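Many introductory courses stop at the sequence. We go one step further.
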Amino acid sequence: MVAVVRKSASRRSVARQSGTTLSTVQRWVNRAEGQRLGRVDWSDRPSGPRQSPTRTNREVEDLILEVRRELKEESDLGEFGATAIHDELLERAVPQVPCMRTVGRILDRRGALDGKQRIRRKPPPVGWYLPQVAQGAAELDQVDTVEGLVIKDGPHVAVLNVVSLHGGLVAAWPSTAIKTPTVREALVEHWREVGLPGYVQFDNATIFHGPHGYPDTIGSVSRMCLSLGIVPVFVPPREMGFQAAIESFNGRWQAKVWTRFEHESLPAVQAQSDKYVAAHRRRTAARREAAPERRPFPDDWKLDLRARPHGKIIYLRRTTDEGGVNVLGHTFLVDPTWPNRLVRCEVRLDEDAIHVYALRRRAPDQQPLLNKATYILPRYRHALEQ
């Protein structure tokens, strides 16, 4: 560009021919003014000064680092952060002491901070602990309850909520009490309407799991799911994140239905809840188009709680200090080298076996088989009613 301009071409025409702006041509022509082209410094650089005029002097920065070293080694209090350094400089009557925030930035710039910055890792995909769900090949319904709601001068209210992980398909059933038969009836009603998911996920409440005081007990809700070809999944006790979708919907339901209006009766709550569920489904309709397909509900299905269950039950658990895990009232050794870690325990009823897989959020696609154990469900066990 400069050579063409020096051959008497106008700067505007050179800018048009080179596809750049006039100011760019002017800048480089002015840079090369009075010099041979081979001796011009063509490196790009900002037009401002090399160093900010307000930057702290190097001598002051060195003094801050020296004061930090002295406080760390000799201070009776043992504090040597930005606040302690700033106070020490004031006590020494150092002229033009930088503010505390500037002292902190100097320590950061000079690499004198001991704290380690938290590493932000990419979150695992939704349903990462179930390979089929994570790959989008199967849908998972999460189920939970909200309790402790009271209508003024009226009954206590509890609500059973359901949300699908991929499609965001929700349902809610407010009532005076949530019991195991209520859960079974509500889920059957819901699945007849929208179809069957591949998995359904619960916490470990007795209304979902069944009694915890008896070994080898498979609750009636699990038996109902197995009879429909749905895999029940139970999340680890006192673990965060696994029920995030349903807990989020629980909060939205309370904010948009319960606290938003003053309800006079349970039918009023149910009517408002039905309106909200319908509006929510309309809003998330596009999301369900990309969700995994749900199976149709069988027309000839009938629940028999005393029939021997078939299929698979999944328990997400954390191993003990010795690398064991408790499933269905029995403790199984998983791996002594995998203590206090997450595992997926698949109770395969038709194979009389339990397969235990390792789970790691940092490597959600790596779930190696840790161990296998023989497990035979006793013939005399049947669902215990709540």
